[in-house]
């Protein structure tokens, strides 16, 4: 499966309303892939939320990726063990060439490479990579999506630097209509 150039990452603490409503507005604006990140939810609540988000994405042929899931499409934290058996689709968060090489060796379908730009959401992962840093690291792993502080205007330069696309959390959680700007910039 080829992932779209924009992956929306959830964070209900930043969401401009109930998360299913925010995701529905992002999907209405053109989003077709969503990563359910909110790992702090109890398992039952998280499963219910995943079902509600799938109900939003399924009618448009969208993809729901669930962080840490053991089946379907999953996204793993940098240090999280690789699941056995392998889910259908697997991505991994990466912050260095070594982590990207690990993701490639594991057969990950994609990687999030962060932090792309200064952001309050990704503290503790070193200085922002910027476009040049992203370009230097991205070839070490699977197709890489820039995450962290990415604004629509960064899209063209990141794509030119080898990004498969961008992953966005805060800006879209706060204003789902921004999906249009990200899609236009990443076309």
Lay out the secondary structure.
Elements: E1 6-9, H1 19-28, E2 33-36, H2 43-57, E3 63-67, E4 73-76, E5 89-94, H3 97-106, E6 110-113, H4 130-137, E7 144-147, H5 155-160, E8 165-168, H6 170-174, H7 179-185
Parallel strand pairs: 1-2, 1-8, 2-3, 3-4, 4-5, 5-6, 6-7, 7-8
Helix pairs in contact: 1-2
Write a structural description:
The chain is 33% helix and 19% strand. The protein has one domain: Aldolase class I (TIM Barrel). It is of the alpha/beta class and 187 residues long. It has 7 helices and 8 strands. The longest helix has 15 residues, at 43-57. The chain has helices at residues 19-28, 43-57, 97-106, 130-137, 155-160, 170-174, 179-185, and strands at 6-9, 33-36, 63-67, 73-76, 89-94, 110-113, 144-147, 165-168. Helix 1 runs parallel beside helix 2.
């Amino acid at each position: 499966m080829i992932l779209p150039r924009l992956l929306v990452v959830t964070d209900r603490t930043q969401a401009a309303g109930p998360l299913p409503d925010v995701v529905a507005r992002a999907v209405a604006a053109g989003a077709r892939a969503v990563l359910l990140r909110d790992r702090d939810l109890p398992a039952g609540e998280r499963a219910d939320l995943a079902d509600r988000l799938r109900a939003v994405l399924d009618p448009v042929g969208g993809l729901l990726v669930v962080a840490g899931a053991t089946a379907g499409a999953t996204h793993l934290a940098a240090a999280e063990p690789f699941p056995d058996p392998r889910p259908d689709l697997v991505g991994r968060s990466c912050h260095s060439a070594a982590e990207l090489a690990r993701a490639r060796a594991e057969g990950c379908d994609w990687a999030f490479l962060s932090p792309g730009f200064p952001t309050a959401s990704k503290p503790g992962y070193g200085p922002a990579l910027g476009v040049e840093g992203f370009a230097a690291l991205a070839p070490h792993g699977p197709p890489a999506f820039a995450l962290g502080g990415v604004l629509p205007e960064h899209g063209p330069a990141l794509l030119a630097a080898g990004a498969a696309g961008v992953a966005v959390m805060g800006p879209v959680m706060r204003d789902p209509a921004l999906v249009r700007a990200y899609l236009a910039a990443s076309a």
